[in-house]
Each structure stands twice: as structure tokens, then as C-alpha cells.
Amino acid sequence: MWSFFSRDAAKDFPYEILEQVNGTEEFLLWKLHKGKKKGKTDEHVSIFILDAKTGGNNTQLEVAKSAVKRLKTLRHPNILTYIDSLETENCIYLVTESVEPLSFNLSSLPTQNAKDKQQKDLFIAWGLFQVTRGLSFLNNDGNLQHNCVCKGSIFVNTAGEWKLGGVEYTAPSNPSQPFPVKLLPSLSIYDPPEKSDSSKHKLASKWSSDMWGLGCLIWEVFNGVINSPSSLKSLGNIPKLLAPVYCELVGALPSSRPNPSEVISKCRKAGGYFHNDLVESLLFLEEIQIKEANDKTRFFSSLPPLLDSFPANLSRHKILPQLINAFDFGNAGSAILAPMFKLGSLLSEEEYQKRIVPCVIKLFSSPDRATRARLLQQLEFFANHLLPNTVNDQIFPHVVNGFVDSNPVIREHTVKSILFLAPKLNYNNLNVEVLRHFARLQASDDQGGIRTNTTVCLGKVASFLHPQMRQKVLVSAFTRALRDPFPPARIGGLMALAATQHYYTLNQISQSVLPSLCGLTSDPEREVRDQAFKVIKGFLGKLEKVSEDPSLKESMEADVNANASTDTSHASSTWAGWAVNAVTSKFYKGKSVDKSGGDGSESNVPSPVKSAATTAAPSVDKVTRQVAKVNSNGADEENVSDSETNWESNDWGDMNLSVKADVQEKEEDGWNVDDEDWAPLETAAPPATLSRTNAPSASATASESSTSFTPTTTSSRKTEPATASNWATSDNATMKSENNWESSWNDTSEWKMNDSAAMEKDEARRQREEKRNQRQKELEAKRNARQGGGPLRLGAKKLAND
Fold first, then answer.
1. Are residues 608 and 493 in the same domain?
2. Is the domain of 436 the same as that of 472?
3. Would the CA dihedral through 63, 68, 73, 79 be positive or negative?
4. Do residues 488 and 601 touch, judged by C-beta distance below 8 A?
5. Helix (H) or strand (E) holding 647
6. pTM of the shown model
7. What is the number of structural domains in the chain?
8. Which of 316, 455, 606, 741, by CA, is between 20 and 30 Å from 705?
9. End residue of a domain, out of 313, 329, 346
10. pLDDT tier at 565, thresholds 50, 70, 90
């Protein structure tokens, strides 16, 4: 009657048993199955099953039960992780982390090219290191002997870690005890020679048998299956760095075999087998919590180039989780961003949303300037993975505060970031908020490079704007750029007009665009004049075609009212013809530098005419100019050839701010470099390449007499320092009202230039330089005359007076 209350324990087993892994019968008493936890599809496990009904006997059941008990008590990163078990009279289930036999894993590794072979060699070195470390734990810390170290007792998990399994014959270290009897005949080939020689057995240590097994494992990893013990005498494909240690491991005398801790110390030395980038990096990550901040920064900065040589599976499942943990709990700082985003490319979209995006959202809310700047610099690597709702609700509110940051580097990178965020932004954020800040930056920012990049970015994101906003903003914004006193900004406006010509009606071209362009034909900068003539020719060609054939008007204006683009790749493709390669914010000296707009290049301007019936505007020949380098005395030092900088790239310009000027600006803004932890980022600002001439000194930069215009200095901005509490505060003195920001595109009062005054300045500057040169020649003549009279002797002047 009690049978009614009996239950089958196997039915309550909380894991689902999946397909069997074949090919393990030679080394395992168990049958290995894949499995997963019931009700959870993402928690995969491995299930070892020994069933008496399918061939297992009582002896095997007893050995298996002993192995389960042993594995429960062994907790080490390099030993197979026990999860659960079930024991009945006729069956034993052992649940561990998801693994596969080492032989299966090695055979699946690609070896098609040199890179694959390098990754495999690093993977094997890391695996052998882990096995040796696991044996050191057993022999030295646990006072145990594994007694069955071979290829069949090693398993590899999803993170690429080698795990020591096969603990069926593990026993306490006791040299006087005989070796355990192995139930599978195929395992006897791994027995050490002292098993059959009692005289040698007396010399055995607690690690000698396991070190023999480690030697067998090394031989099998590089050469395949061991056919007989005599095969161990030949090295085969064992690396030269590992050969000396291997010979010690398979020594005939047990006493000559080294302790596993000695093996690790020898191979970890410089030039040893375990001394490589992968092992060093993984060991550093394991100890990241106790490392110094400087060591962390140095490590994370050097990690990205090393990741290409690491196995992808190990990088994805081992290194990336440790980087995320270091970010969450280890105070790793912004230096961790580059390797984390690089490894994020290995993830699926679902994994990326689960593991990387939460870190990104957390980083954008950080008040630390260095973190925000690095995050904006890395935006292109993860922007495509961000969902529109995430961008508009959780990221953009933090990004938009960078437009009013007192530091120009933050403002510059914030402008650039809109190129990657524009496809995700909603109507209000893009067509209202972004354009409001763009209008203010383009009109009143004191950094010419930021004004230029604002024009560039507006042209790049024009396809994502609402058609009505494009009609109101583009022409006004780009024609305003044509009046900017900074030459690269005027060139940027020219290129923007040419690249976005399909968004203008013919009336706009004839009544607004061309009159503004014609004003640049007398520009003092030669580069600006050349570009202006070429863009004018393109627009005139378009009008001429329509004049000859009025039916072309509809096709010419087809894109004017086109809806905002939803293609995230459209921004770069429509921009490939004219993106600024580099922009410098340094000021130009009058005649000392060739008036070419400061970029040192000509550009290939795309023809504004898109119709197949029209011909493109002629391309610009590449030119080489002689750029005069000016020393502190105002004299030419040397003439160097400056080849054309390619405008046909999607690179952005960066602020070329000298360290001295940066520090001075910070002091004027009222915040200290040390307080804000900004010095490393400022000094690491990438140099501008638009102009190949030497950057002027800070004193020359700040000098009114040597500049082509008088900039608005940062001291006049009166902005407070960006700190954790007030970095998002806007500058009310420079912000436009939200109600009338559209009119600011037409407000050009700040940039009106008096051509005659500019010419008078140039003439006065030229006369000053001529006087300076004349004075230098007179000094040189006096010096030569004095030297021509013979060398002066000490006291000669005194004797002459006497």
C-alpha cells in the first residue's frame, strides 16, 4: 500500500536532458549529454549520466558516487564546476557547467591562416596554464592526487577555460598507497612508470604521478593520441619554449619531476611559454580589483590592439564580462570604453542590448568630463545599436548639455555626435533643440573650428531634417558661414552648399545662393576664391540647363520637399564629396602664411547638377604650395611643400589648442585643471591637419595685432566651470530664446565684415612686416660689418678709449 506514495525522483529532476555527446566513451564512465534548466532557455548545462540499465555495474556506480562527493567539495576556477546531482539505486545524474571535451574543442579551432594559428597557440598556452594551476591547487593546497590527468579528463567551457574533470580516481596523497585501479583499459597507457616498479614508487612525491599525466597531456595536445609510452620520447610538434619543461615532466625518476608551482614560475618568466599577451591580460583582469588606478589606465589603453590576436570566443565570453564587471564595480574609468566597445562588435544584437547598452546609458549620465569626451569620441562604434527610444529619452538629454559646456573640446565632440544620433532623434529633438544650439554655436562660438564643424554637421544631417525646416534653415545657415572671418568656415559653407544643392529651389539658388557666393570671388583668401568660382559654375550650370529645357525644373527640385531620410547610412554617403578633413582654431598671420583658407589643400567639389543630362563641374587639379614657416622674429625659416589635404573623406576637424592656451583658458573660465581632472584629455587633443604650417605660439595666438579678426575670448563668456552639480547649466548670455531661435539663422550682425577695413588691416600688416624685415637686414649688415673688422679682443674697447 506504500507504493502509492512512492515517487520517481528522475521525474522531479529540474533539468531537461538533450542530445548525447558521442565519442567520450573511451575515457569516461559517464555518458555526456547537453542539457538546460527547465523553464529557462538560456541556462545551458552539461549532464553526466551513469545508468546501470545501460551497461553500468555496481563497481562503476560506487566510483561515480565517490566522484560526485569529491566534486562537491572541490571549488576552484580551474576545476569543473559542480551545479547539481541526483542519485538513485540504478542511476546517477551529475550536472555541471556547460562544457565540451577538449579533443572536440581543439578539432573545431580554425587553422586556415597565420592569424588562426597564432590564436590557437595562445589558446593552448592559456589552457595548459589553467590545468597546471588546477593541479597545483590539488597537490599543494588540497593534498590530493588526481591520478588520471590526460586529454580525456579536460573539458572546455563556453568562455574557453580549461577545466580539470575526471575526478573518479582522485585520492589523498600517500606515496605508500598503491595506485588506484582504473576501470577503463584505455586509461592504463597514462600510468607513470613507477606504477610497475616498486623501487621507483618509493621515490615518488605527491605530485609526481600528476606531473607525468601533465606531460602526457602536453604531448597529446600538440601531437595527437598516444599509441604507446615510448611515443613520449619524441618531442614532435611541442614548442621549443615548452620542450625543457616537458622533458622534466616525463622524466623516468619520479623525484626529478617538478612541482606544478615550479612549472608555473618557470614558464611565467620572461621568455617562458606562459609569458604572452593573452595570459598576462587575463591574469591582470582576474586581479583588477586590487590594481592601482594608473595600472588600470595603462592596461586598458594597451588592450584594444591586442584583442585582434586573441581568440574571438574567449574575448567574447571571458574578457568582455570581466571588463563590464570592472566598469560596474572596479572604478575602471573612461579608459575601459575603447576595449569594451571593440569587443561589443562580437556580440549579437540581443546580447548587445542586454550587456553593452546599459553601460552606455550609465556613462552618458556621468558628470566626469573625460568620460563624456571619450564616450562621444567612441559614439560611432555603438550608435547603430541604440534604439530610438533609448536615444531620445535616456541619452540625448545628457548629450545636449555638451553644447553649452565651457570647454571647447566637449562642445566640439558634442557637435560631431549629432551626425551619429540624427537618424534616431525625434522631430522635436532634431528640428528644434539641435538646430537651436547649432544656430547659437555658428553665430557666436569663439572657436572657429567649432563654428566650421557646426556647418559641416548641419550639411551632413540635412537629409534627416523635416522639409519645412530645411527650407527655413539651410540657405540662411550656409550663407552665414560664407561671412565667417575664419577661412575654413567659409570653405565649409561653400562645400555645404554644393553638397546639399538638391534641397534648394531654383528661385533660392538665383536669389539667395548665387549672390552670396559672388561676394566671395573677391575674398582675400585664395583658396576661398577658387572654391567659390567652382561652386558658382556648378549652380550656374544647373540654372542654364533649366533655362534651355524648362521641363528639367521638376526633376531638379524633386528632392526639395522629400521626407526626412530614415536610412542610417545616408548621412555618410551624401557627404563623401566634401567632408572637412581637419579644422584648426589657431589664428592666421597676415602675409606669413599663404592665404589658402588654412587647410593646405584644394578640393574636388561635386557638381551640384545631379541630372544625367548635365555635365559635372570640372574637378580641381591637386596643387602643391610653398607654405612659409614663420619664426618668432617674423622671418621665413624654410619653405616646405604641402601636398593637398583630401577633402573627400569623412574625417572631422579637431581643435588644435596648445597646452598653454588651454591652461590659460581654464584659468579664465574659473576652473582648475587638477580639480576637473581634464589635463590628460586636453593635452591629448589630436592635432589639426587642415593646415600643415607650424601652429603659432600662445602669445602669437592671443595677439590682436597678428590676427585677421578679433575673436570673442572665453573670458568674456563668463561661464561657470562644468562640475558634477552645474555642468549642464546653459550660458544665458549666449543662448537664444526658444521662441525666436529660427530668426537667428538670418541674424548676421555678429559677423558683418568691412571689406575696406580688412584691406587696410592687411596693408598695415604688410607694411609692418616690411619694416621688420628691413630692420632685420640692417641688423644683419651691422653684424657683418663688425665681424669684417676682425675679431674683437678682450679689453680692446678700453685700450682705444685710453
1. yes
2. yes
3. positive
4. no
5. none
6. 0.67
7. 5
8. 455
9. 346
10. low
